[in-house]
Amino acid sequence: MLQLRTINDVFTQLAKRGGETVMMTQNGDGWTPLTAKQVYGRVRALAEALQSWGVVKGDRVAMTGENRWEWPVTDFAILAIGAVSVPLYQTLSPEQVGYSINDSGSKVFICSTGKQYEKLHGAGEMPKLERVLVWDAGEFPNTESWAEVMKRAPSLEEPDAAFDAMVAAAAPGDLATIVYTSGTTGQPKGVMLTHGNVGSNMMFSTDDLHIVKDDVSISFLPLSHALARHLDYVIYANGGIIAYEPKFDNLTKSMKSVRPTVFVAVPRVFEKVRQAVEGRSHGFKKTILQWALKQGEGHRDELAAGKQPSGLMYKLADKLVFSKIHEAFGGRAKVFISGGAPLGMESSQWFLNVGVRVMEGYGLTETSPVISRNTFAGYRMGTVGTILPNVETRIASDGELEVKGPNVFSGYWQKPDETKKEFTDDGWFKTGDIGKIEDGFLSITDRKKELMKTSGGKYVAPQPIESKLKVDGLVNQVALIGDNRKFVSAIFAPNFQALEKWASANGVASGDHAKMVADPKVQKVYQDIADKANAGLEHHETIKKVIVTPDDWTVESGELTPSLKLKRRVISEKYKEQIDTLYAE
């Protein structure tokens, strides 16, 4: 098991690897390796620059950028001098960037590109901001030069006793990072995590996932997301290698070239893999896929236990179908981790049928972030695994999961009243999630604040139903509505690439999204998707009507948070007229 007191311990362990490759970075044509010595020199160079600009222990430094080698170097350098890292999502608006910089009181802002730098022009007054550093080369007025800072890096690659002592001086109680919540409701809040919060969580979050030296993972989830950053730390601490992929659209290509052994993603990525497989299966191929899935289903207990079925038909299905799906992940992934939202039972079953045990976990930014996880030793499909050994849990009378432990955050930055609301009188953190624990395995049924209550007084948990609906390849996103209404309905944001293919094959004019989704044939297709999902639901949960939107829901257009959660209030406001009309009929 890892022994980590602080995040800085991760950097110390990484630095000891000398000439070994620890990172791989995109150079346009392929991958360039970076050794531990090179990373050490670059971290030292940036740390010295920050100190020369007057950044001292406890000062905040805000940062934003794509998944590139510069991201961990920046993060490690900030932490090395005892300062506080404030990671911001790249998708934030100028106003949100300004809010986070001002709220945190950041003295320095470090960003990746001219596009991120330009946000400062619309961010308003930032009286405490003193310096701006941009990774990319270019003409950026009133900024420091990254290239100039990095010039000293090659001469700083050998161990330095004074620098190493400063890194080691970090204490578990020191504030390490302020992570701003996605803001599904209201202004984002800065979650304060200490070195001890994150260090204690790393020790237990991936035990028995067999992450070892020279394992390789692709870092593509935004590193401002607590899960992505946490797992990168864990892989470094275990002697692994991270390949940084800055563009999500290149992920398929990168998986083939990097061939990761550890694959970390949010449920939407797994769902898209499934949709791609099913979307390419027509006619005879579809028949073969369905036959193969049936073989996997017959061996599901063995697969859940980590055993390779020996039956002849399963081996044939593996050769013809399952091996091709594994190749989509690079062909040698041994650990599949999903977090950030529920994967859904149907998707869990589908992937297990094809021989992929997806290790779902659960947690929040406020819990550093992991509370529970499935492992090779303790795996149960449809749950988020067993509770970490150093975390206590209990279920409140209304079903809400409450937790205690060294991983629980120290509070929201400069918001004592908001912090107080999140804890019970006897000191337990209220997760806001409805959960149950059976045989030691935790299941999360929904967000407490997202539970809908129909006008008939019945409660409906939207997330599990939405997961069932998103299984269909014609669906990109979906939101259930029905709070204080007579019945439940669904708003679909289509997968337009798939829908246009369907439309062309079924005599529906494509191209104009508004006209296409208004076509009765398209409306019926999405009602049929809802009707299919209704099977097995309680009567009060069934979806009676649907709305099909002509829009893509994205972070940029405001319907999704940076961590791809639905902004239900925004969606309800945006489609208020259609919703009111639907329920008035």
Strand count: 26
Query: In percent, how much strand structure appears in the residues?
Result: 15-25%
User: What spatial form do the alpha-carbon principal axes imply?
Assistant: globular
CATH homologous superfamily annotation of the domain at 265-447: ANL, N-terminal domain
- Named CATH architecture of the domain at 265-447: 3-Layer(aba) Sandwich
What is the CATH class name of the domain at 265-447?
Alpha Beta
Largest sheet: 5 strands, parallel
Description:
- Helix 1 packs parallel to helix 9 and helix 12 crosses helix 15.
- The strands form seven sheets. Strands 4-3-5-6-7 form a five-stranded parallel β-sheet, sandwiched between helices. It has a five-stranded mixed β-sheet with strand order 12-13-14-15-16. Strands 2-1-11-10 form a four-stranded mixed β-sheet, with helices on both faces.
- Among the domains are: about 180 residues, Rossmann fold (3-Layer(aba) Sandwich), CATH 3.40.50; about 130 residues, ANL, C-terminal domain (GMP Synthetase, Chain A, domain 3, 2-Layer Sandwich), CATH 3.30.300.30.
- It is of the alpha/beta class.
- The model has no long low-confidence stretch (mean pLDDT about 95).
- A hairpin with a 6-residue loop joins strand 14 and strand 15.
- About 35% of the residues lie in helices and about 20% in strands.
State the main characteristics.
single chain; GMP Synthetase, Chain A, domain 3; 22 helices; 26 strands; alpha/beta; 5-stranded parallel beta sheet; 37% helix; 585 residues; Rossmann fold
